Amino acid sequence: MSRKLASITGVHGYVPEYILTNAELETMVDTNDEWIQSRTGIKQRHILKDTDMKASDMGAEMVKGLLKKTNTKPEEIEMLLCATITGDRVFPDTANTILDKVGATNAFGYDINAACSGFLYALTTGAKFIEAGMHKKVIIVGMDVMSSILDYSDRTTCVIFGDGGGAVLLEPDESGNGIIDSILKADGNGRHYLHMKAGGSAKPPSLETLAAKEHFVYQEGRTVFKQAVKGMINTVNEVMEQHNLTIDDIDWIVPHQANIRIINAVADGLNCPMEKVMINIQEYGNTTAGTLPLCLWNYEDQLKKGDNIILTAFGGGFTWGSTYLKWAYGD
């Protein structure tokens, strides 16, 4: 009997309606369209402007669309993991709020905070519950409302990020298609270079932290750039070596959509043709934990059953890794 794998049997994305263009950003901060596109590759990003909507509402839209697409009833879902750093609240988990909003009364869930690598961490975790035979239907959500933690007077960060994400359904598969392997890494020293200064127990919210704008994204761009390129290249190569693969055997590389220069550098380092690299950063910007499922959603109609796909990401903390899977559906 073949090894039981967890296969992705459906994917659905969601982004808010409001589009923040580079032209509008020019009226908010000292920047321009040419500068943004040349350094990031971003033309626009979607922003959650509706004050009645929260992160859990975005997640619920992703899950509702996924359930409809896969003809799955809410009560059939047994587990939901939500990768996010911008959940509704510090507690309770946004995952459980999503389950309530979609009527998944037989499921449990929890959040995973690994920044931009969160979707990979959650995907790998969910897959293990299926491989172990504990569950048959697991949903993985990757999303963020980055606009909620951005300083729109800081041109080094506010031009990069957007809101949105996607969800995938995992189910058992014994045909050989599914999530085959993951290599996940972490280096806690990276917390110094990419973080939010205040808001946690190390520095609780106060009038002083608010005045100092310490509840926004902070990063040292050059350090993050170098480590992201190195980390993604190394783990992609490592997972290929473990499975006797070359870049010629890979149908798609799905890199975290952090910055077009990072994406290009990763492709160059892997000697991977750009036509095999998923890119949608120009439309959405960096949605943190949401970039990988958004890519799969956008490219879904181009994917074929049995395609070799490697997902790779790098996030604050630092966290990074790569996941190798065989796509389970499509012509």
Structural class: alpha/beta
CATH superfamily of the largest domain: Thiolase/Chalcone synthase
Element order: H for helix, E for strand = EEHHEHEHEHEHEEEHEHEHHHEE
The value of Rg in angstroms is 19 Å
Secondary structure tally, helices: 11
At the first level of CATH, what is the class of the largest domain?
Alpha Beta
By DSSP, the count of extended strands is 13
The N- to C-terminal Cα distance equals 25 Å
Q: Based on CA inertia axes, which overall geometry fits?
A: globular
Helix content: 25-40%
Uncertain runs: none
Mean pLDDT value: 96
Say what the CATH topology of the largest domain is. Answer: Peroxisomal Thiolase, Chain A, domain 1
Q: Which assembly state applies to the chains in this document?
A: single chain
- Compute the number of structural domains: 2
- What is the CATH-assigned architecture of the largest domain? 3-Layer(aba) Sandwich
**Major sheet:** 5 strands, mixed
Beta-strand percentage range: 15-25%
User: Strand order within the widest sheet?
Assistant: 1-7-6-4-5
